[in-house]
Amino acid sequence: MAASDRTPRILLDTEYCLTLIRTRPAHLEAAFERFMPGDIGLSSLTVAALQERAQKSRYPEGNRRALEQFLLPLVIADFDTAAAAVLGRIAAGLPPQNLTSDSHTLLLAAHALSLDAVLMTPYPERYAHVSGLRVNSGPGAALTLTPQSAAQPKPRRHSEPAGSIYAFGSHDITLDLLGDRLHARHPGLTLVTAHVGSLGGLMALQQRQAHLAGCHLLDEESGEYNVSYVKRLLAEAGIPTVLMGFVTRVQGLLVRRGNPKEIRTLADLTRDDVVYVNRQVGAGTRVLLDHHLRRANIAPRAIHGYAREESSHLSVATAVAGGVADCGLGIQAAAHTHGLDFVPLFEERFDLVIPREYAIGPLLAPLLSMLRNPPADLLQRVNALGGYGTERMGEVLAEV
């Protein structure tokens, strides 16, 4: 991936990338060559989605190598708090039950708007309802950069059920397990998740475009998780909030099987032979890392790969498993899913932040009931992942 100080003028969406990777159309490759380095980029969310597809494909090794080659000339733009704020503004006029079922589409639209970039996509109708977004898709689209206008296709109607619960914020595999169990018990309910980092999740709640957020932000001064951030971002904005316990989890270094470079501590990250892969700014894991680096007097610039960012634990694991990096900070479950070894370092709280209006409303009532009295099979599946504790699941930890 090309490093550049430029802000991309063009952002390729996930489907557009898949089209390029599969077909390599000569006319588009020639068109792209007319742009300066740094003009064409991808959202970190798209990179994570492409890595997941490669990992789950029939030929993961070959597809990972093809993806790495595809990414080399492109700039990767981090989905940061500015993009999260735009995401909130997009959905501000839409009740959650009317939002598109494809949350990835909204996230990419928000990212393109925050960068003032043209979004390249083979399906412009998916984005036609996003005001102000510039979209292009035709054979000469890379050259014309035409703004979205009334001539674009009309928005596609979605048949999403009214019982969609939107959970934006930090990534954790246990949220997927919770969503599966909730839908099995209540078929009319669906937990829709978007991995935008803990801080991005709180911003989404502030903009009233999600029902809850997964959060694990450490306050360095107090040593407490989440409360101070919720006070600043939500309580001071007039949004009373319930902080509910979900899981505790172990964070540590994800390393290749057998730990061939014998990476054991954060100090090892400064070695010349170690390449690290980081989480994005605003992610709780990034906050945790930076806190412990400061405590250990380790400068980020001393870590080779500190600037390389991924948007989820699974994408960090994919980077390590694919040989792009030697290690990254993440959860034990992500190591296990990718056949990696795990060096435990820290234990943390992963809470659910819920605005009070939703905590006492009917939509979330079945979900909250399940958290207060978790089914045995849900607890078994969570514990089987390794590195999790469920003792405080469903407990109200604070009302802010």
Written account of the structure:
The protein is α/β, with parallel strands linked by helices and 400 residues long. It has 3 domains: 10-144, 3-Layer(aba) Sandwich (Rossmann fold), CATH 3.40.50.1010; 164-243 and 353-399, 3-Layer(aba) Sandwich (D-Maltodextrin-Binding Protein, domain 2), CATH 3.40.190.10; 251-348, Periplasmic binding protein-like II (D-Maltodextrin-Binding Protein, domain 2, 3-Layer(aba) Sandwich). Helices cover 37% and strands 19% of the residues. Strands 8, 9, 10, 11, 12, 13, 14 and 15 form an 8-stranded mixed beta sheet that branches. The chain has a 5-stranded parallel beta sheet with strand order 3-2-1-4-5. The longest helix has 13 residues, at 44-56. It is globular. The N and C termini lie far apart (42 Å). The relative contact order is 0.14. The model is unreliable at 1-5, 97-101 and 138-161 (pLDDT under 50).
